[in-house]
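Q: Sequence in, structure out?
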Amino acid sequence: MLGINFSFMMAETIGGKGLSERKIEDIKEKAAQAVSEIKQRKWPELQFMDLLKDDTSAVKDEARRLNGVSENFLILGIGGSALGPKCILEALSPFHNISKKPKVFIYDNVDPSTLDCIFKNIDIKKTAVNVISKSGGTGETAAGFKIVYEKMKKALGGRAEEMFVLTTDPGKGDLRRLANEKGFASLPIPPGVGGRYSVLSSVGLLLAEIIGVDSGDLLKGAADIHDRCLKDEVWENPALMTACLCYLMDREEGRGIDVLVPYSDRLRSFSEWFCQLWAESLGKLGMGLSPYPSVGTTDQHSQMQLWMEGPENKVVIFLRVEDYGVDFQMPHGFDDLPGMNYLSGHTLSELIKAEEEATELALAKIGRPNMTITIPRIDAYHLGQLFYFFEIMTAFVGFLYGVNPFNQPSVEESKRLTFGIMGRPGFEAKKKEVEEARGKKTIFKL
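A: Exactly. Output:
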């Protein structure tokens, strides 16, 4: 079961730069209100909590169908529609494409050179395509879909539709219309589940089944931590405590940057998934917390100097893995070299754990707050716990700030301006706005 250790966030252990127990006691009423908002389901977007009870048979059936007709699996999506599946792939089947099939490709941008590389590495006739967009009208996803579908039609003719599955809203949007009118297979994203909270829906579960991971294990892990994350008492609720600590560190100590440091290459993409969840959910009304992705031990050699002696505006959150599932012992050899002989007989897992613990302590010794989230191992069950823990915790932080943690109003403005540039009907005013802004951009130019 996932656990947290926040000793190095507290004044009792790191001195005046830490938080006192009294600060947490003072916020208990506000924290309990955040729990109440979730329990009373005051926000329709809390529907992501219902995913834990979903029947995954349709996802399993679709995965079997697609695996039966393809050697490659291509995801077209962006934001939560790509970050979640990517995290599942890299955590649960690292280096997947080297030795396993179907090979998985994720096109999560509109960079033409990336799509060209994908086309050069797949046989389009043997490629299943998952188009993921909750709204059904995400511009980047639509662009990729149009290009890939045209190639598929040229290669397979009337069989092209068989190679696609559209993951989208069950009742509305362009992708839903295509599924209804053109016969594309489809999977639903529940109406109340936003993109960055959708990893435990068909968005992430289909990819899991495609690569041979039981989607039910992801949901079971999340379900098993659900009750702990809804306890009213902050000292008994790990998600609520983590939320309160991050919120208080910003409000009381000016530490508004949260560095997430998983000590596993397999969780590198998890820190990227966290960045969208944290930034898009909390950055509103002049408030919010800035996410900062990292990975240990790699970034001890590239970022730790900043954590230690840079601006005192950060909290470091470590992700510690107890059992890596495999290990290597360092043999004796070169024992006359002091920089090597001390390693003989130790294992790599001993070393990575020692480096994580040492980094915690080095920061704590100079009063730099940090906390550690520990999981027993990286598997579908515990990855499901991590996803759910961070989703609930993010909602708590949003409620503490008094912002809606489920919308993204400023992102929508960027989309509207893009529609204007690209000539989408109904956005003529936005096109004019862009043209006027272009004139201003020529004032200072080299």
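The first strand starts at residue 3 and ends at 5.
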